[in-house]
Amino acid sequence: MAARALAALLLGAVGVAGCAEPASLGGDARVRRIEARVTAVTDGDTLRAVATGSGRSYEVRLIGIDTPETRRPGTPVECGGPEASANMARLAMPGGRGAAVTLATDASQDTRDRYGRLLAHVTRAEGLDLARSQLRAGWGEVYVYDRAFARLERFESAQRAARAERLGVWGACAGDFHRPR
Questions:
Q1: How many CB atoms are located within 10 Å of the residue 30 CB?
Q2: Does 107 reside within a domain?
Q3: What's the whole-model pTM score?
Q4: According to the model, what pLDDT value does residue 30 have?
Q5: What's the rounded Cα separation, in Å, for the pair 66 and 77?
Q6: Higher pLDDT, 109 or 72
C-alpha cells in the first residue's frame, strides 16, 4: 500500500512539473489544471495558450460562454463579433502581452470538443475569470452544453447584470448574438 501511495505521489509530481498530460491538483481528480501563458486570441470564446514547463500548445474553448462568430466557415461575421474578439484580446493579452493563466477543465464537461479544442475555464494569475468577464461586458452569453458546469450561477449573474445595463451585444445588437452584422 505504501509503495502505491509513493508511486502515485511521484507520478503526480511529474505531471505538476509540466510533463505529458496535466496533473490533477487537489479537489476532484477529474479536474485538470494547467499553468500556461496565452499566445493568441482566436475569437471571443477561443484562445491559444502554451503550458509553462512543458511548452505544449493548446487551443482552448472557454467553458460556459458563446460569443458572436467571426471565423466560422460559411457563417457571416455576426453582430458584436469583432468587438467580442477585441474584448477577449484585452482580457487575455493585456498590453499586448499574453497573460499568465490557469486552464482548468470542469468535471461536468468533456475535456475536448468536436474540433479537438481543450474545454477549460481560463483564469488569469490574479484571479480574473475570462469567461465571466466576457459575460459581464456583454460580449458573450451563457452557453450550457448537455450538463450544468461548476461556475454556472456566477456566469448567469454576470450575464443578467450586463443585460440589465444593455452592455455589449445586449445594447449594440438588441441581444441577438447570432444575427449577421
A1: 12
A2: yes
A3: 0.83
A4: 76
A5: 14
A6: 109
Contact by Cβ (8 Å): 112, 145: no
Q: Answer whether 82's CB lies under 8 Å from 53's CB.
A: no
What does the buried/exposed string (b/e) look like for 42-77 if buried means 16 or more CB atoms within 10 Å of the residue's CB? bbbbbbbbbbeebebebbbbbbbbbbbbbeeeeeee
Domain residues for 119? 27-172
The CATH number for 116's domain is 2.40.50.90
> Does the residue 178 lie in any domain?
no
Interatomic CA distance for residues 123 and 125, integer angstroms: 7
Residue 12 lies in a domain: no
> Residue 83 corresponds to which cell in the numbers above?
468587438
Overall number of domains in the chain: 1
Stretch 22-33: mean pLDDT, rounded? 60
